[in-house]
UniProtKB/TrEMBL annotation:
<keyword id="KW-0479">Metal-binding</keyword>
<keyword id="KW-0805">Transcription regulation</keyword>
<dbReference type="Pfam" id="PF12833">
    <property type="entry name" value="HTH_18"/>
</dbReference>
<keyword id="KW-0804">Transcription</keyword>
<feature type="region of interest" description="Disordered">
    <location>
        <begin position="204"/>
        <end position="227"/>
    </location>
</feature>
<dbReference type="InterPro" id="IPR009057">
    <property type="entry name" value="Homeodomain-like_sf"/>
</dbReference>
<dbReference type="InterPro" id="IPR035451">
    <property type="entry name" value="Ada-like_dom_sf"/>
</dbReference>
<dbReference type="GO" id="GO:0043565">
    <property type="term" value="F:sequence-specific DNA binding"/>
</dbReference>
<dbReference type="InterPro" id="IPR018062">
    <property type="entry name" value="HTH_AraC-typ_CS"/>
</dbReference>
<keyword id="KW-0808">Transferase</keyword>
<dbReference type="InterPro" id="IPR018060">
    <property type="entry name" value="HTH_AraC"/>
</dbReference>
<dbReference type="InterPro" id="IPR004026">
    <property type="entry name" value="Ada_DNA_repair_Zn-bd"/>
</dbReference>
<dbReference type="GO" id="GO:0008168">
    <property type="term" value="F:methyltransferase activity"/>
</dbReference>
<dbReference type="GO" id="GO:0008270">
    <property type="term" value="F:zinc ion binding"/>
</dbReference>
<feature type="domain" description="HTH araC/xylS-type">
    <location>
        <begin position="113"/>
        <end position="211"/>
    </location>
</feature>
<dbReference type="GO" id="GO:0006307">
    <property type="term" value="P:DNA alkylation repair"/>
</dbReference>
<dbReference type="Pfam" id="PF02805">
    <property type="entry name" value="Ada_Zn_binding"/>
</dbReference>
Amino acid sequence: MVEVKLMANIGGHEPKHHSIPMADDAKIAADEGQLTDERWQAIINNDASYDFQFFYAVKTTCIFCRPSCKSRPPNKQNVRIFQNAQQALAAHFRPCKRCKPTGQRLPDSEWVDQITNFIDSHFSENVTLEILAEMCHGSPYHLHRTFKRVKGMTPGEYVQQLRMNKAKQLLADTDKTITDIAFAVGMSSTPYFVTLFKKMTGTTPTEYRHRHKQASETGRLHYEREN
Ligand SMILES: [Zn+2]
């Protein structure tokens, strides 16, 4: 709430857009940063007549859009309203790839950063190409192709890599069962998890844990002897 008030104060010093009728100026000044019913209707109806009168950002995806953006309507409680693209950028939101709220084409590398950030914080959930495309605003085909070109691996391969790294850490540092670890990294099938782990690391999860525990035990003994 403090943030919204702050934004309203900053917004008060911004020059008004010429497209806003004079009579509405007072009302709009009072509503700055507020998700009014009118704005919410504009967002869910993709109403292009509100474009550049305000922008909406979605806290969960860290992306901001024009009201007319064809992306799926966000959860109302996650929406923040900005008067212009600069405010949204200053608050660390990124321009949507689909509706290009800054009026500029988002470089592919920035888009791939958005996708990567999303995967980094959601890899233990069910991350499909369709979910990625929806959350990061692009077609599944285009997203897959762009991601692979920029990162040298597909989004699916990147998800697997993160899952295996997390699994290694859990195998080494915890006593969780293999099934629990598979589940914790977002894989509901233990046999598939074991197969993938072996394919990517060259050892089974159990072997990996055994070797790692042996190594740390040896390290501990050396440490105790020397001290
Ligand atoms: Zn958008």
